[in-house]
Each structure stands twice: as C-alpha cells, then as structure tokens.
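Appendix B. Chain record.
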Amino acid sequence: MKRTLIRGLLNVLPMALSLWLFWSLFASLDELGNLMLSLIGQHKWFTGAGFVLVVLLVFIAGLLFSVSPIAWLWSWIERQLMRFPLFKSVYGSIRDIASLMNRDPSKPKHQQTVLVKQANGGFVVGFIMTETAPQPLLDALPEGDWVPVLFQLSYQMAGITSLVKRTDLIFVDWSFEEAMRFNLTAGISTSADVSATK
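Structure tokens predicted for this chain:
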C-alpha cells in the first residue's frame, strides 16, 4: 500500500507541479497582456488574448533588436543604469540566467562534469562552466592551469564556484543535464527513476 502510494506520488507530483507552473506563467502573462489592452480602451477579447499579445510584443522586440540603432540605444541605456550598484547586481544576475537559455547549439558546450577529490578521500561532483578563469584571479593564483568549477548545492539553484587545478580533476562522461539533476536532488532523482521502472 505504502509503496504503491509512493510510486503514484513520484509519477503524478512532478507532472502536476510542472503543469501548475506553466499554467501560472500563462495566467500571469495573460493578465499582463489584458492590462495593456485595457490601457488602450480594449476589453478582454478571449482567454489567452493577453498571452498572445505579450508573445507578439516580445517577438517584435526581438526583430527591433536586430536593427543596429535600436541595439545601440538599448546598450547605452543598459550602461547608464549599470551605474547604480543595486540595479547592476539584480539586472546582471537576471541577464546572465537569461543568456544561459539562449546558448547557440552550433557552438561547442563548455560544461563538463568532473569529480574533485576531498581531503577525507571522498569526491564531490562539480561542473566546469568555462575553460578560462578571469585574468585578475589567474594573476593572484600560483602558477598552474586553474579552472573554475561549480559545486551545485542540493535543492537550490545556488552553488559555490571554486578554482581547481586541471590536473586535480577527474573528467566524467556524464551529460551536464543529468549530472545537474543528480546534484540538485542529492541523487534522489536517480533513485526515483530506478524505483519507477520496477
């Protein structure tokens, strides 16, 4: 009885939460679009009209940013706003996350799963996110081939970036997505996949 309930929970809960998350996003964007329609004196046309309007406006913005004067103007506005420290921190973080979603699939991916040995003999799963560390850090470190390695914290998007010598890394033939899922759930996702197949 208990195992059946857990099996049902493990299969239904992720789907329910995912659908709820996407529905909440859809409803929020639809409400935003309807608010913009009301500002120009238009009433709600149909359910989803606001969402369609927001998607259309984002598409038009994408077209405009391909025009050099618009891109230059936006870049200038960004530079002016970046003078404010609080805005710089918040906007910079959001922009970096957005840029991760806009990776060019034709370009080689730098993310590599690695193992790093600890003082107690254990190993920690980490990720090489880029092949080169910033020059100020390289100038401050002893001579060697140093690589930035991200150690993801379980159950949160935060992590710790550590500089590790390349010779101290064990490269693992494991996809970034699967290894990230393993780290984020502390290995539970792998256990859930195995138990669901039994």
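Further analysis of this model is presented in Appendix C.
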